Amino acid sequence: MLQNLHFIIKLAFYYKIPELGWTVYTAIPKAVIKNTVWKQTYIFVVIGLIILIGAFVIGIVFVNKAIVKPIIALSKTMEEVGKGKLNVKAEVNSKNELGKLAEIINQTLLSLKTLVEKVQKSSETLIETSENVSKSIDKNAEINRRIYTDIEKINAKVQDASSSLEETTAGVEEIAAAAQSVSKSTQEVMEKTSEMS
After folding, report:
1. What whole-number distance in Å separates Cα of residue 45 and Cα of residue 33?
2. How far is residue 172's CA from residue 170's CA, in Å, rounded to a whole number?
3. Could you tell me the residue ranges of all domains in the chain?
4. 34-43 pLDDT, tens per residue?
5. For residue range 59-88, what is the model confidence (pLDDT) as tens digits?
6. What DSSP line would sit under 26-42, residue for residue?
7. CB contact set of 70 (below 8 Å; sequence gap of 6+)
8. Where do runs of H (alpha helix) occur along the chain?
9. How far apart are CA 106 and CA 103, in angstroms?
10. CA distance 124 to 130
């Protein structure tokens, strides 16, 4: 007979109401409490999972906005720099490490741009100077050719003058010899004339 008896385990609770002198008893089957606890646990777990998934999604959005997008922006900026464009600027508006990195990149780009401009100006000045030097060398070469030609002409004239001088010297010597001869002859004539007188 004990087999047909069903034992239901119940939890009993009571509450005394002192003003009335009553005591309220209640008994709830353990299975009801257990089912209620499981239902509430299930609800709390589901709500907890929903909150956890929501926090995860918010975290992903935050990470995307705070980290991934600035890194992509910096990457695009550096790709442009790699193509030779130095007038780009890293657009990262944050105060974290990525913002500091963007500031450093912008300062580096500004310094690099200034350096490239200086090199370009120096190159232009160097090209202009080399063109001026080349023109000056060409002018000097032309002047040297003219001087050489003039020296050749002067040398030819000096040689002509030297030949003329030699001829003149020879002529003067002949005239001097003839003058001496005339002078001797004149002296002899004068001596003979003196002797005759």
Report:
1. 18
2. 5
3. 106-170
4. 888 899 999 9
5. 888 888 778 888 888 888 888 888 888 788
6. EEEEHHHHHHHHHHHHH
7. 92, 94, 98, 99, 102
8. 30-63, 69-82, 97-196
9. 5
10. 10
Check if the beta carbon of residue 107 is closer than 8 Å to that of residue 89.
Answer: no
Q: How many residues does the chain have?
A: 197
Record the pTM: 0.48
- What pLDDT is attached to residue 46? 95
* Amino acid identity for residue 187 in this structure: Q
14 near 26, Cβ under 8 Å? yes
Q: Is 10 in a helix, a strand, or coil? A: strand
Q: What is the CA radius of gyration of the chain?
A: 63
Burial of 81 (C-beta count, 10 Å sphere; 0-12/13-18/19+): middle
